[in-house]
Amino acid sequence: MNIQKAVRFVEAHGTELEKYRVHFLLGKERNDEIPLRRLRSLQNGDGGFPYKDEKGKATCVNDTNNNLRLMAEFELDKSDVCRKAVEYLFKIQREDGNWNENEVVIQYNPPIWDNPNNPRITMWLTADITNVLIQLGYRNSPAVQKATAFLLRNRDNEGKFAGPLHSTWISIGVFGQLQGSNSDIVKSALNVIEQNTEKLKDGAGDFTWCLECFYHAGIPRENPVAKRCIAELINLQQENGLWVSADGEEYTIFTTLNALKVLKWYKVWLLRYELWCESESIAWKQCHFAYVMFSGKHHD
After folding, report:
1. Which portions of the chain are predicted below pLDDT 70?
2. Which pLDDT tens digit goes with each residue over 89-125?
3. Does CATH place domain 3-295 in 3.40.50.410?
4. pTM above 0.85?
5. How is 34-53 classified by DSSP, letter by letter?
6. CA neighbours within 13 Å on the CB side: how many for 285?
7. Can you say whether the dihedral through the CA atoms of 151, 154, 156, 157 is positive or negative?
8. H/E element holding 18?
């Protein structure tokens, strides 16, 4: 695994916000105004965020939640931008506890994951919003309580949540945070993921998403399912240092940043450093860089 190549690519080709993400991840920079300036410029009057983050377009529920996830990552949960976005999601939650995509986005011919009124999409979207709301400190809110009840009503006897496999791994994040990683709900859902790992069709994108949910659920890297996902993700890094998404080239930097993030959370950078430096002295410089970047120190 080559951390240096990935970081250098983001620094050379990323947007201002993407460069800030990698610097924030590496502990090199903390300036809340950089992400807040970008987010305020995009936020619609209703508190949501426009489709594909294209200013002037109608609010997209999925993109609103994606921006809230960024705010959780940047620890911006107390900001006015975050509060407005959360209030928007509270306002549009359906009576039975789920969230559906804004029907207006159909005019943009969206991909299937942004398609309104698709029950399969509603399931994973509801799980994903709930997961992020808990991270932002709303675990005891009526919205989260209604949403978790909805998710549990749509869970089979084997522990699989309805909809695509995404619904199940995201729900691991939800119920791991609420009930702990040893809860029956989490253990049965993990078993479902273990039996269906080959169905993670988006490669790096799916593995990073799984690991992010596992991490928030408190699942350790020694867990067999987490261990396999980590190994698969490491092996998916390209020669140029990047991780690619099945969704297209435009998501390469996004996927690379998410891979770096979850692998740092799971301390894989440090783990690789220890393994390489025990067995291959020739790899010292690269290992040292990975370890130093993990520790947040400067290395020439």
Report:
1. 201, 270-300
2. 999 999 999 999 999 999 999 988 898 988 999 999 9
3. no
4. yes
5. HHHHHHHHH--TTS-EEGGG
6. 3
7. positive
8. helix 16-25
